[in-house]
Amino acid sequence: QVQLVESGGGLVQAGGSLRLSCAASGRTFSSRNVGWFRQAPGKDREFVAGIRWIGSSTYYADSVKGRFTISRDNAKNTVYLQMNSLKPEDTAAYYCAAGGSGLVKLGYEYQYDDWGQGTQVTVSS
């Protein structure tokens, strides 16, 4: 069974940067779309960014456009989320997820069937 492991979370001051990593074991990321979601206490899980297998096309939530960058290194079987200009409202548990390889606009939870355990990101003001 595929396992996704996130890392790179931590405490950072507003305006700082963090780089999250998501590594897959078992089934690899090959032929799979991958997304990042986040969930703050008392709030619903929300889409952050996604990257398709075909062409590595990327998608971003409006709240993070221009600040976050999703990328993948297929040789390393790893997906990254570079987070710059962090704001206190970015504080949340961040999860990576993998799904199919369809040529679709990413951004919906139903598109993913494997999820990581999450990594906490806390941004202080």
Give a quick set of tags describing it:
125 residues; mainly beta; 7-stranded mixed sheet; globular
User: What composes the largest sheet?
Assistant: 7 strands, mixed
Task: Please give the count of helices.
Answer: 0
Q: Structural class of the helices, strands and pairings?
A: mainly beta
The helix-strand sequence is: EEEEEEEEEEE
Helicity level = under 10%
Choose one word for the global shape: globular
Estimated share of beta-strand residues: over 45%
| Gyration radius from CA atoms, angstroms | 13 Å
How many strands appear in the DSSP assignment? 11
How far apart, in Å, are the first and last alpha carbons? 40 Å
Average per-residue pLDDT, rounded, comes to: 94
Low-confidence stretches: none
Detailed description of the structure:
- The structure is a single chain.
- The protein is an all-beta fold.
- It is built from no helices and eleven strands.
- The chain has strands at 3-7, 10-13, 18-25, 34-39, 46-51, 58-60, 68-73, 78-83, 92-99, 112-115, 119-124.
- The model has no long low-confidence stretch (mean pLDDT 94).
In short:
Helix content is 0%, strand content 50%. The protein has 125 residues and is mainly β.
